[in-house]
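Justification of resources, computational component.

The compute hours requested in this renewal are based largely on the per-chain cost of generating structure records like the one below. Each record pairs the submitted sequence with a full structure-token output. That output is archived, and it is also reused by downstream analysis tasks.
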Amino acid sequence: QVQLVESGGDLVQAGGSLRLSCAASGSIFSVNGMGWYRQAPGKQRELVATIAGGGNTNYADSVKGRFTISRDNAKNTVYLQMNSLKPEDTAVYYCKANINIGRSSAPVRVYWGQGTQVTVSS
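The structure output for this chain reads:
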């Protein structure tokens, strides 16, 4: 019932910008923490940025100062503004969310988006 739908991935040149979006939909009571992860070919998935329900943010050192994570709670949507993109940012970006589905037993569950491709050319 719950889905995370991502959009915004594209092919851009180094130094360019992209804005990723991830909207949660379905039987949702509330969306708690959300975050973005990425995975390049041959590498493990790594944390990019997170944002808590209260707005506290954290970033990987490799993107700090260039990327900004934000959220619109009314739309159950998280964004990732990516500026000054580098070729090493090339990866599939995945949205993750901790979602309260309103169940009295174990109400909070982790959901992942399908991933959106970001390619940065040199």
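The chain has no helices and eleven strands. The mean pLDDT is 96.
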